[in-house]
Automatic annotation (TrEMBL):
<dbReference type="InterPro" id="IPR058240">
    <property type="entry name" value="rSAM_sf"/>
</dbReference>
<keyword id="KW-0411">Iron-sulfur</keyword>
<keyword id="KW-0949">S-adenosyl-L-methionine</keyword>
<keyword id="KW-0408">Iron</keyword>
<dbReference type="GO" id="GO:0046872">
    <property type="term" value="F:metal ion binding"/>
</dbReference>
<protein>
    <recommendedName>
        <fullName>Radical SAM protein</fullName>
    </recommendedName>
</protein>
<keyword id="KW-0479">Metal-binding</keyword>
<dbReference type="InterPro" id="IPR007197">
    <property type="entry name" value="rSAM"/>
</dbReference>
<dbReference type="GO" id="GO:0051536">
    <property type="term" value="F:iron-sulfur cluster binding"/>
</dbReference>
<dbReference type="GO" id="GO:0003824">
    <property type="term" value="F:catalytic activity"/>
</dbReference>
<dbReference type="InterPro" id="IPR013785">
    <property type="entry name" value="Aldolase_TIM"/>
</dbReference>
Length: 350
């Protein structure tokens, strides 16, 4: 079968480490995810990513440390103040320590996210960081997933031991949320100016979003200079206002993962590509980050997502093994061979 000339040229650019532009990205996103061309695109992205990183993947953990009815008011999030059933709560020291212990039992967690709502108490969050640093292995990086924050706030987090920040200017920001897109982007710049790594994502992707919307969102992170990019489909959480639109398939999500991988891997600081929620198709399309989750989760209506949508460490290891990765990297970039013996050792043959 003859390959489309435009696709052939774009893939040649990607193989040659030449940055793809917005028009390239737009064209790739118009390809039908059920087509031969999409299969070729996904295979190319996976091969390029794996070659760059010695066929390694990383496991992240995320702990939702605070729950409040959130003034961000995101129509896709279970915590939006206008539609949430959640009441304010905060993890106790014991609960935090227990969750960290579960994540870090075998010292193979690359990074630990501590997640708050959009508005949060900085002093309490800094205390949480200090507790996490005290209980996590030195090879596990501590990261923040917080609302819009000042440069000074990020400097305090860096001083406390945070390595990087997850932050996004989401699709529909300011329309499907009560937040200002300019504030979101400024927060991302604040994180970088504070000397922190920036992790972002094209999210939350729904069936109604256009290719142009996706391209604009993808290039926010590329143009700022991210260390991690990702794609996340919007979950149709019952009770959230956007649930009526449904959600895209995992195949479409994998196609988008492949496109973002090829468009962002030439960013000098870019190292890893994520997908939410984890699925095998996306790990065969360029993704090499998997996330175990516990505590509050904006895509879940359960108080502790580990009892519902969230994956645990054992399931994460098993999925990466089944998707053919050879190594798990720790936060210091050292590698652990991911083989059957390791799955047995870590009680991951689930």
């Amino acid at each position: 079968m003859k390959i489309n000339t435009q696709l052939d040229k774009i893939l040649e650019k990607a193989w040659s480490d030449i940055p793809l532009n917005r028009e390239d990205c737009k064209y790739l996103l118009t390809i039908d995810e059920r087509s031969f061309e999409s299969g070729l695109l996904r295979a190319a992205a996976a091969s390029i990513v794996r070659n760059k990183n010695d066929n390694s993947a990383i496991i992240l953990g995320q702990i939702g440390v605070d729950v409040t009815p959130c003034p961000g008011g995101c129509n896709f999030c279970t915590f939006g103040e206008d539609h949430t059933d959640f009441k304010e709560s905060h993890l106790s020291d014991y609960e935090l320590e227990e969750k960290i212990r579960d994540f870090c039992k075998y010292d193979d967690l690359y990074g630990l996210y501590l997640m708050t709502m959009h508005t949060y108490d900085l002093d309490r969050f800094l205390q949480t960081i200090n507790k996490a640093k005290a209980h996590a292995p030195k090879t596990t990086q501590i990261w923040a997933n917080v609302g819009d924050s000042s440069l000074d706030a990020f400097r305090e987090m860096k001083k406390a031991g945070v390595t990087g920040v997850y932050h996004v200017c989401r699709i529909g920001e300011g329309v499907e949320t009560k937040l200002n897109p300019d504030d979101r982007i400024q927060t991302m710049k604040n994180a970088l100016d504070a000397g922190l790594e920036l992790y972002t994502c094209c999210e939350p992707i729904g069936p109604e979003h256009t290719v142009d919307e996706l391209v604009d969102n993808i290039f926010i992170g590329i143009e700022l200079g991210i260390t991690q990019h990702a794609a996340m489909r919007r979950v149709a959480v019952p009770g959230s206002p956007l649930a009526k639109y449904g959600q895209i398939s995992e195949l479409r999500l994998a196609h988008i993962v492949a496109v973002i991988s090829l468009c962002s891997l030439t960013v000098p600081t870019m190292a890893y590509m994520g997908v939410h929620e984890p699925n095998e198709l996306s790990y065969a399309a360029g993704a090499n980050i998997i996330t175990a989750e516990s505590g509050a989760n904006p895509r879940d209506n359960q108080a502790d997502t580990s009892k519902n949508r969230g994956m645990d460490m054992a399931l994460c290891r098993k999925m990466l093994f089944e998707c053919g990765f050879s190594n798990i990297r720790k936060g210091d970039e050292s590698k652990i061979p991911l083989d059957l013996d390791y799955l047995i050792k870590t009680d991951s043959l689930v």
